[in-house]
Amino acid sequence: MTGLDLGSIINWIGLFGIAVFAVSGSLEAARKEMDILGFLLIGSVTGLGGGTLRDLLLGATPVYWVQRPEMVMICLVAAVATYFLAPYLTSRYRALIWMDAIGLSTFCITGTAIALAQGASPLIAVCMGVMSATFGGIIRDVLCSESLILSSRELYVTTAVAGATTYLLLQMVHAGETLSTIGAFIVGFGLRAAAIVFGLKLPQYQRPDG
């Protein structure tokens, strides 16, 4: 697959992930009954937060959305659309969880791919994928005074690690960008969906005095 094809695929996946995460942030704003400016703020930081951290850690400055303002516009449009459509959702929390799952599964791929393209080692690339996938949700929860989704009992970070690692391994065996992306999304989203539906979780630490 040519470099142009690779860049195009990663670009479209990234735009989709930004939009989905912006919607998830806006749904949290809806649960908190914020005004339209609150929707715009929470939607934007959720959509752009993970990629911002990735670029800062990789030394890629100015960060991506400063150079491509259309990404900010995607967040704003998604936030406004959610503001008007949220009242018609019977369960905003369930919608938030599933939108977050889609964004998580998307950003773990783009974060890993971008890090690899910038010459990061395999381990660092996976770390960047996980940070890209989770940091926006962390900012959302902090700003909305919610319990961090990271502390949920269901598998969360593990699914991002699985998706990022799957993408990396498929790239290492030259499976091609399309297969690597599809395979990684299936693993990441499938695992997260199973965790949501069946309550899958890793064993938790128990204090000796507990």
Give a quick precis of the structure:
This protein has 210 residues and is mostly helical. α1 crosses α2, α1 packs parallel to α4 and α5 packs parallel to α7.
Overall description:
The protein is mostly helical. 75% of the residues lie in helices and 0% in strands. The relative contact order is 0.14.
Largest sheet: none
Percent range of helical residues = over 70%
The helix tally amounts to 8
* Shape estimate: globular
- Count all strands and give the number: 0
- Proportion of beta-strand residues: under 5%
* Poorly predicted parts: none
N-to-C terminal Cα separation, in Å? Answer: 54 Å
Protein traits:
single chain, 75% helix, globular, 210 residues, mainly alpha
Topology:
Layout: H1 3-31, H2 36-58, H3 64-67, H4 70-85, H5 92-117, H6 122-143, H7 157-172, H8 177-198
Helix pairs in contact: 1-2, 1-4, 1-5, 1-6, 2-4, 2-6, 5-6, 5-7, 5-8, 6-7, 7-8
